[in-house]
Design goal:
This protein is an alpha/beta fold. Helices cover 33% and strands 22% of the residues. The strands form 2 sheets. Strands 1, 4, 5, 6, 7, 8, 9, 10 and 11 form a 9-stranded mixed β-sheet that branches. Strands 2-3 form a two-stranded antiparallel sheet. A hairpin with a 2-residue loop joins strand 2 and strand 3. Helix 3 packs across helix 8. The protein is globular. The two termini are 30 Å apart.
């Protein structure tokens, strides 16, 4: 299996400014992400950015860099431009890895690429893990996905879903932590693999209503009638870095 990883990176971050360049164990965060991508067995790893400082630091530690426009509203839009600039073949497998995931498992990156490779009629693949905590189910920062019987995504949401009418209707917040979940609840892992040609199609779509409401860019794909295959993993997925507390947690673990 041959696949490529592109890491879209921007310097601006509302909650933690400049986070992708912040130090973790003597290296900028983005270098940790790059090294994990390299360890996945990818044929080629590229950092796509609009920022000269990110580009220079990335080149200093040996990464290939693709400069992109500053107008992109999402990582997938930046990915689309990078793919167009780099001249990939239409069916090449591209994994988009967020630049704030310094603890991402290389095995997960490989599993995701393999998932798309194994489904040659599919344009997009992603991953999910079983939800075991009701607190996570009701946490809007944990994205949920509902699957059909062939493991294609039916919907992504920050809301708890599927909604168990008879159990959830009258539940109060202190009772949530004691709630036992039935089988069939999944947490989405926010990493995607694409056929390179599909990204040009994606780039020509405007943001859709659901995407704007949920702030979930993958909903644009479902909105336009395309399928997303979801691989199930039992690999533990540490949370990415959004806040200073997240950064300190990662620093303590490396």
């Amino acid at each position: 299996m041959d696949f490529h990883v592109i890491i879209p990176a921007r310097l601006d971050s509302t909650r933690l400014p400049g986070k992708v360049l912040l130090d973790i164990a003597g290296k900028p965060m983005i270098q940790h992400v790059y090294e994990r991508a390299k360890a996945s067995g990818a044929s080629h790893v590229v950092i796509a950015t609009d920022d000269e400082k990110i580009a220079q630091i990335s080149e200093d530690f040996g990464a290939d860099v693709c400069m992109t426009e500053s107008s992109h509203q999402s990582g997938t839009e930046r990915l689309s431009e990078a793919v167009a600039n780099l001249g990939f073949e239409e069916d090449d497998i591209i994994v988009g890895l967020q630049a704030d995931e310094p603890l991402m498992s290389p095995k997960l990156i490989t599993q995701l690429a393999q998932n798309l490779f194994d489904h040659d009629h599919v344009k997009v693949a992603t991953l999910a893990a079983k939800l075991k905590s009701a607190e996570d189910l009701f946490n809007p920062n944990v994205v949920k996905v509902v699957l059909n019987h062939r493991n294609f995504a039916m919907l992504f949401s920050r809301a708890p879903m599927p909604w168990e009418r008879d159990r959830f209707g009258s539940i109060k917040h202190p009772e949530i932590e004691k709630l036992k979940l039935a089988d069939g609840y999944y947490r989405h892992i926010g990493m995607y693999a694409y056929r390179a040609g599909f990204l040009e199609t994606y780039a020509n779509w405007p943001a859709c209503t659901l995407e704007k409401l949920e702030s979930l860019e993958q909903l644009r794909i479902l909105w336009n009638g395309f399928k997303i295959h979801v691989g199930i993993t039992d690999v533990v997925v540490p949370a990415g870095v959004d806040t200073q507390a997240d950064l300190e947690r990662v620093r303590a673990s490396i």
